[in-house]
Amino acid sequence: MILTIFLVAMVSIGWGVAFISLATLLKVLAPMQLLACRWSITAVLFLILIAAGRIRIRLRGRKNVPFLFLAGLFEPCAYSILEAYGVKMTSASTSAIFVATIPCMTLILGILLFRNKADWKLVASLIITFAGVVVATFFSPAFAMGGTRAGMLCMTAGVVAASMYSLSSKKASGDFDASTVTAVMAFEGAILFNVIALLQGHGTDTFLIPFSAPGLAGHMLFLAVFCAFASYVCYNKLLQYVDAALGNNIVSSLSTVIGVVAGILIMGDLWGWYTIVGLAITLAGVWLSTLRMKEDL
């Protein structure tokens, strides 16, 4: 249980405060440049560990090899691109609500495609945490639903991609450890995003700009080392122990709470009673999820 708590904390903190570094770097980099640089650094870290013999990727004789590669194709590859364009073509409120449905979609797809089972605690925790996000978003003065059809389609496809990533990683964990799953994710992401960045006309500036100043370098290294390398290893490790929808719900909900609090304290974001009530409801759902998680451990 202590290991599980540590894994949840690592992922939630990393993903919860990642937006600060993302916002800073997106002022000087195009989205594909940021993704290319971030996942290239992560891939290099894994290459070093493989060269040192700390990680060994053995594919022969493993029946879940397809899920190993599918996990990386769904995230970061498909999800990152779909999210980037979806957020661009919809409002912040719309994209936040779409993202909040990922645990529910994970549950539905898990039942339909992998014959996963769901009990009342799991279903209730997903509904409660989603309701908390809706309250915090809907009653905010900045609330504004909107966006193009293309944006809505991108966000919908992104929700499916994120859900399929968690389910694929869960299946891959039957044959591969978390480090192997994350390494393959990093290699796939680095290749795809660098190809796209090059096709968009970006060259060495993709890697030179982030390291042109200590502050920018710090943000990039934080995203690559902590948010991508460490956090994804921890999340893939968590999925070895708990149901994909359950793990997704706990991590995404706590990340939302941490992100909102960090936004208020660091970025000066607006907040009010709707924020307090919404986060309280979300935490109630997380608490119910932890009760259900104890049954899996």
Describe this structure in words.
The structure is a single chain. This protein is mostly helical and 297 residues long. Helices cover 78% and strands 0% of the residues. It has one domain (31-296). The longest helix has 25 residues, at 214-238. The model has no long low-confidence stretch (mean pLDDT 93).
In short:
This protein has 297 residues and is mostly helical. It has helices at residues 2-25, 31-51, 65-88, 92-100, 102-114, 120-138, 149-172, 178-199, 205-208, 214-238, 244-266, 273-296.
Main beta-sheet annotation? none
Ends: how far apart? 7 Å
Helix content class: over 70%
Instruction: Spell out the helices and strands N to C.
Output: HHHHHHHHHHHH
In terms of per-residue confidence, which ranges show pLDDT below 50 for 5 or more consecutive residues? Answer: none
Average of per-residue pLDDT values: 93
| Portion in beta strands | under 5%
Number of strands: 0
Radius of gyration, Cα only, in angstroms?
19 Å
Number of domains: 1
Structure classification: mainly alpha
